């Protein structure tokens, strides 16, 4: 299971893990109503289930057991086994407990699947602040078998030290690895076994999330400079509430669709999309917000203006 806060590098790690050629079934959980992650997978030719529009720990928790049962049935009945392992990528705001509760306590599943390893990604520049602010981020660290510290190339010594101080308190004994620019040593991650006896979650109901998502479709292709300016301004105006931007858009100067990503204050350069699961020729952007999303929705509407259809902005 891969977990870790918004934008910390789960999908990047997933792509690295999938590159080893082992047949893998993937279950991706996305908080946003409009899923993006499946388009970001380098390999599209695998058993893939996307559970979107909420977290596996709450809104879509009920979908996990049936999904895993269906995948197991397909595996069991196939002559040529379609996969040898499964990777579950949780949403960035999911608490791992209810997911582990399903995996470890559901008798049918626990008798057929073995939970090998829980990996939690933490982006060094932003993780200490996220751990201070969000119980979900602390739970992701608490349940990890391995902590993978990412974005080392964008971090400085102070950020590293601040995170180390927090981890010494939250998970002093959990092994850690550091990665630079997505250069994960995946072979050593995959051969690791989790604990032979696992702590079983208490199963208590969790407090409700404070997170919401906004999704929109772009009807026109903006030049990158225009889109970049809009996104920079939105990130600057909403430093506390706008946690993540993710999407696939068409740009005026580019034939192929481009992947757009921002996490915290960091806007990443757009990357051409290699292949796309479903292509309707329209750009899609998802914004994950902490707290009331109405102020951001208003700003999105005026910032994107003519690029949008009326009623194109959806709050969830
Ligand atoms: N510079 C740098 N960028 C990275 C690193 N790891 C990931 N990224 C970039 O960070 C952005 C977010 O990475 P993802 O792998 O999509 O993060 P995620 O945890 O899957 O995000 P969510 O699923 O939305 O929570 C992408 O633009 C990645 O290319 C890293 O170590 N260094």
TrEMBL record:
Residues 211-304 form the CobW C-terminal domain. Pfam families: cobW, CobW_C. Keywords: Chaperone, Hydrolase, Nucleotide-binding. It catalyses: GTP + H2O = GDP + phosphate + H(+). One of its GO terms (cellular component) is cytoplasm. InterPro entries: CobW-likC_sf, CobW-like_C, CobW/HypB/UreG_nucleotide-bd, P-loop_NTPase, Zinc-reg_GTPase_activator. GO terms for molecular function: hydrolase activity; nucleotide binding. SUPFAM superfamilies: Hypothetical protein YjiA, C-terminal domain (SSF90002), P-loop containing nucleoside triphosphate hydrolases (SSF52540). PANTHER family: COBW DOMAIN-CONTAINING PROTEIN, COBW-RELATED. Belongs to the SIMIBI class G3E GTPase family. ZNG1 subfamily. Zinc chaperone that directly transfers zinc cofactor to target proteins, thereby activating them. Zinc is transferred from the CXCC motif in the GTPase domain to the zinc binding site in target proteins in a process requiring GTP hydrolysis. This is Cobalamin biosynthesis protein P47K. It comes from Methylomonas denitrificans.
């Amino acid at each position: 299971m891969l977990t870790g806060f918004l934008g910390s590098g789960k999908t990047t790690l997933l792509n690295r893990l999938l590159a080893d050629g082992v047949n893998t079934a993937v279950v991706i959980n996305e908080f946003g109503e409009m899923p993006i992650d499946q388009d970001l997978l380098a390999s599209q030719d695998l058993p893939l289930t996307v559970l979107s529009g909420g977290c596996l720990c709450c809104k879509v928790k009920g979908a996990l057991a049936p999904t895993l049962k269906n995948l197991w049935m397909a595996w069991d009945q196939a002559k040529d086994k379609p996969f040898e392992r499964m990777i579950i990528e949780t949403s960035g705001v999911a608490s791992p407990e209810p997911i582990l509760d399903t995996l470890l306590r559901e008798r049918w599943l626990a008798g057929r699947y073995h939970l090998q390893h829980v990996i939690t990604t933490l982006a060094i520049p932003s993780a200490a602040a996220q751990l201070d602010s969000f119980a979900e981020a602390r739970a992701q660290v608490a349940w990890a078998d391995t902590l993978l510290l990412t974005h080392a190339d964008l971090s400085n010594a102070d950020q590293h030290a601040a995170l180390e101080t927090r981890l010494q308190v939250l998970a002093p004994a959990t092994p850690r690895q550091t990665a630079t620019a997505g250069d994960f040593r995946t072979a050593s991650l995959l051969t690791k076994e989790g604990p032979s006896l696992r702590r079983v979650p208490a199963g208590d109901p969790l407090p409700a999330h404070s997170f919401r998502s906004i999704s929109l479709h772009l009807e026109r292709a903006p030049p990158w400079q225009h889109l970049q300016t809009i996104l920079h301004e939105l990130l600057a105006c909403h430093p506390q509430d706008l946690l993540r931007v993710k999407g696939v858009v068409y740009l005026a100067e580019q034939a192929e669709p481009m992947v757009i990503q921002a996490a915290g204050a960091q806007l990443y350069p757009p990357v051409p999309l290699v292949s796309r699961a479903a292509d309707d020729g329209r750009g899609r952007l998802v914004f994950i917000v902490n707290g009331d999303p109405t102020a951001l929705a208003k700003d999105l509407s005026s910032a994107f203006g003519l690029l949008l259809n009326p009623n194109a902005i959806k709050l969830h």
